[in-house]
Amino acid sequence: MCNESLQKDMYAGGTDTTSTILEWAMTELIRNPTTMKTLQNEVREVVGSKVEIDERDLEKMLYLKSVTKESLRLHPPIPLLVPRELTQDTKVLGYDITSGTRVLINALAIARDSLLWEKPEQFYPERFLETNVDYRGLHFELTPFGAGRRGCPGVTFATTIYELALAKLVHNFDFELPNRVKMEELDVSESSGLTLHTTFPLLVVVSPHTC
Ligand code: HEM
Q1: Which of 20, 92, 93, 147 has the highest Cβ tally under 10 A?
Q2: Nearest-angstrom CA–CA distance, 88 and 2
Q3: Whose Cα sits closest to atom 39 in ligand 1?
Q4: Whose CA is nearest to atom 43 of ligand 1?
């Protein structure tokens, strides 16, 4: 692959996806004030009086890691992953699939399957505190980054950037909905497209956190 094409892949694969997951995580946290408070408490406790948050701090933020997994579960930025084409005939669950067939994996449907997840529609990061299921492609019930040889190579970079951004936001600021908008009025519908955005941008009133 030439350098220019590789660079384009990196930009295309790495920018929209990472900002999308941050937007969904903030949306869910605003809708779930107790979860937001738990996260803020953890981040503020770990960071203490330090001004900057770095990667080493993230390792101590186990609740933040669960928020990451739960955001990626409920809102995988690329819900149908990237199409694959079979290079040879194969059999899956008794079905014959011929070479050349295009296959789409519905990662969103799998991540919201009630046979695999308890209360799948609920944003509940605590579910990940009790399990080692993660998104690196070894647990097929959670594959927002795909799996196998063509799985996303940006997974560590993406989650680190996203977690640093989220930790800094909730550490430094408090958030509320504007003009007395009620929580249940928040529109959380999903747009359609290759990446799954919120239909309407999240609008919040931000105030600096003072200890
Ligand atoms: C939350 C952020 C991200 C998500 C959810 C995501 C998701 C994905 C998915 C689902 C695939 C297809 C995997 C498959 O078909 O099995 C993919 C491929 C890819 N991603 Fe990401 N990605 C993210 C961030 C990034 C970043 C930050 C980079 C680079 C800096 C990146 C670079 C790539 C590249 C180059 C591919 C193509 C890999 C190949 O075809 O071999 N991604 N990504």
Answers
A1: 20
A2: 27
A3: 150
A4: 152
Verify whether ligand 1 is closer than 6 Å to residue 77 (CB atom): yes
Q: Could you give all domains of the chain from N- to C-terminal order, each with its CATH number?
A: 3-208 (1.10.630.10)
Tokens of 22: 């941050």
In short, whether 110's Cβ falls inside 6 Å of ligand 1 is: no
Segments of the chain scoring below 70 in pLDDT: 1-3, 5-14, 211
Q: Which of 10, 14, 195 is nearest to 107 (CA)?
A: 195
Alpha helices, H only, the chain: 3-14, 16-31, 33-47, 55-58, 62-74, 107-111, 155-172
Give 82 Cα–ligand 1 centroid separation in angstroms: 9
Q: Which of 7, 103, 152, 156 to mutate to test the pocket of ligand 1 (most atoms within 8 A of CB)?
A: 152
Maximum pairwise Cα distance, the chain = 62
The sign of the dihedral angle between the CA atoms of 73, 110, 138, 130 is: positive
Residue ID of nearest Cα to ligand 1 atom 41: 150
Helix 62-74 crosses helix 16-31 at what angle (to 10 degrees)? 110
The CA distance from 173 to 171, in Å, is 6
